[in-house]
Give the backbone structure.
Amino acid sequence: MTEEELNISFNKAKSADQEAFARIYDFYSEPIYKFIFFRTGHKEVAEDILSDTFVKAWLKISQVNSAKALSTWLYQIAKNNIIDYYRVRKSQVCLDEVEEFLLEDGASAIDELNLDIEQRKIVDLVASLPKDQQQIIRYRFFEDLTNEEIALLMNKTEGSVRVIQHRAILKLKTLLNRKKKT
């Protein structure tokens, strides 16, 4: 979707045009689903949170000032829904869910074996970075968010996001070189 098409769809969606909002959904649903799935690890949970994200977006889209802010706003809704999910889950864990989690965890371990060896090394190395560096690397390279979107999501300036990203990349290069030598 071009920037112009997004602006048109956004303006129509603000006027309660369902077809225009459907185009927005089609454009953003896949990357936001990945964003959610990466944080929950459960297909059904990610689908539920995605659905809830777009229902909330539909109900409040008139409050968004511009089409440019739409992406960050949708990610923020998704992020808040993920936080709510874990808040509720923390107080309501039952034995069936634990068993289901263990089974799903085993399935994801098999999926991880299918990763390319170099990709696996990088994923492991990213996990060894400080939390803010991990988060920025994931947002930027796994979820393909812009520095502007990352800054808004993390309540940081774009400049600090760039600095943290630069430091993380340097650290990853150093760690990767160390691994190659061993």
User: Anything to note?
Assistant: Residues 1-114 form a domain with the Rna Polymerase Sigma Factor; Chain: A fold (CATH 1.10.1740.10). The chain has two domains: 1-114, 115-182. The longest helix spans residues 67-91. The chain has nine helices and no strands.
